[in-house]
């Protein structure tokens, strides 16, 4: 089959291997894995491969993505706190949603009642990262109000760390989450079976055997799809880091100066560029740009290639030290970090291909 470039190639066998590794790592410590699919827009072939590898629960930040895999036989989480205006769809397409606003939960209650369903929720608690979550001083009163709502079942508490404030999960803040769950159960005489202790940034604690007893769920995206934990960007043993390959086609190769000629002003993105004079370079241009990718979150597989920069539509490479005879029409492969993968998978201008054995 003739391919269209630029593209992302997904190795579904390596993805399945990573799923099994992360499942074993977490399950051995009594931790359920919610596989987060937002990094690849819940593309159906990838979600299918995850489910076939043993994933029983997926989570996504966009209800549109969950709607696209509605027929798959797995539990579905909405991991971005819901919009009040989207309550009907949240109840329809997700089994569980993460919540922090009582007003929104009231809307979910009404939508669930009309749909003759019970909607499960996890109440998010802010432990210092300052993204979503109720504060500890409001927690008890909030839960009391939630328990009054029909067609809503509070099944646990959770937290999110690192994504906004960069606060690392540690024994103190995750133990606090367990303590707050225990306090709620005791005071209100209820059962909250799930303690959702964060995302791939919590994986380093699982790997090191440091995660507090009681944490029994993690929401894992990067750990599965890129084989890295996100607190320190370390590789996870027995995982692949090259599940996803970004490919771009060379559209120009020329020897040019390393510094532009003329008065330097702002570029197309309002930035003032800076250049080092290293003489004449062998430069290549690829037909891919900042509209599609995050340039500082990607790296050429060929270590003798350097990325010089990019405009909206063109990626500029330095081939000066490279001994390969690259030509116009050749394809260059890149590894991607999470930010680049997210942007590339979202871009309609990047084709997606799925590799099986």
Give a verbal description of the structure:
This protein has helices spanning 12-27, 44-52, 63-68, 87-93, 102-114, 136-146, 171-188, 203-207, 222-225, 338-346, and strands spanning 7-11, 32-36, 57-60, 75-78, 96-99, 119-124, 152-158, 194-196, 217-220, 244-257, 280-286, 298-300, 306-310, 315-318, 331-336, 351-355. It is α/β, with parallel strands linked by helices and 357 residues long. The chain folds into two domains: 12-225, TIM Barrel; 244-355, Beta Barrel (Elongation Factor Tu (Ef-tu), domain 3), CATH 2.40.30. Strands 1, 10, 11, 12, 13, 14, 15 and 16 form an eight-stranded mixed β-sheet that branches. It has an eight-stranded parallel β-sheet with strand order 8-7-6-5-4-3-2-9. Strand 2, helix 2 and strand 3 form a beta-alpha-beta unit. Helix 1 crosses helix 2 (44-52) and helix 4 packs across helix 5. The mean pLDDT is 96.
Layout of strands and helices, then pairs:
Elements: E1 7-11, H1 12-27, E2 32-36, H2 44-52, E3 57-60, H3 63-68, E4 75-78, H4 87-93, E5 96-99, H5 102-114, E6 119-124, H6 136-146, E7 152-158, H7 171-188, E8 194-196, H8 203-207, E9 217-220, H9 222-225, E10 244-257, E11 280-286, E12 298-300, E13 306-310, E14 315-318, E15 331-336, H10 338-346, E16 351-355
Parallel strand pairs: 1-16, 2-3, 2-9, 3-4, 4-5, 5-6, 6-7, 7-8
Antiparallel strand pairs: 1-10, 10-11, 10-15, 11-14, 12-15, 13-14
Helix pairs in contact: 1-2, 4-5
């Amino acid at each position: 089959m003739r391919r269209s470039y630029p593209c992302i190639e997904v190795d579904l066998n390596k993805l399945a291997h990573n799923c099994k590794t992360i499942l074993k790592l977490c399950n051995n410590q009594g931790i359920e894995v919610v596989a987060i699919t937002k990094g690849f827009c819940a593309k159906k072939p990838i979600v299918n491969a995850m489910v076939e590898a043993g994933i029983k629960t997926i989570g996504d930040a966009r209800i549109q993505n969950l709607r696209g895999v509605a027929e798959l036989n797995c539990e579905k989480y909405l991991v971005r706190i819901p919009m009040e205006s989207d309550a009907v769809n949240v109840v329809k397409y997700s089994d569980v949603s993460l919540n922090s606003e009582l007003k929104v939960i009231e809307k979910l209650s009404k939508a669930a009642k009309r749909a003759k369903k019970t909607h499960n929720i996890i109440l998010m608690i802010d432990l210092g990262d300052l993204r979503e979550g109720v504060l500890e001083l409001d927690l008890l009163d909030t839960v009391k109000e939630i328990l009054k709502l029909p067609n809503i079942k509070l099944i646990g508490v959770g937290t999110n760390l690192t994504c906004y404030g960069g606060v690392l999960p540690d024994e103190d803040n995750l133990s606090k989450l367990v303590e707050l769950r225990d306090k709620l159960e005791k005071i209100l005489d209820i059962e909250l079976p799930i303690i959702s202790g964060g995302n791939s940034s919590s994986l380093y604690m699982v790997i090191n055997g440091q995660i507090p007893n009681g944490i029994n769920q993690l929401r894992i995206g990067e750990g599965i799809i890129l084989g890295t934990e996100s607190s320190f960007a370390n590789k996870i043993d027995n995982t692949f880091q090259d599940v996803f390959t970004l490919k771009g086609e060379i559209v120009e190769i020329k020897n040019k100066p390393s510094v532009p000629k003329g008065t330097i002003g702002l570029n197309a993105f309002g930035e003032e560029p800076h250049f080092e004079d290293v003489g004449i370079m062998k430069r290549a241009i690829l037909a891919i740009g900042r509209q599609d990718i995050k340039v500082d979150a990607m790296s050429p597989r060929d270590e003798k290639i350097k990325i010089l920069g990019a405009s909206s539509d063109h990626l500029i490479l330095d081939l000066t030290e490279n001994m390969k005879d690259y030509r116009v029409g050749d394809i260059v492969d890149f590894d991607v970090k999470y930010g680049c993968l997210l942007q590339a998978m979202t871009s309609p201008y990047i084709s997606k291909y799925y590799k099986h054995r």
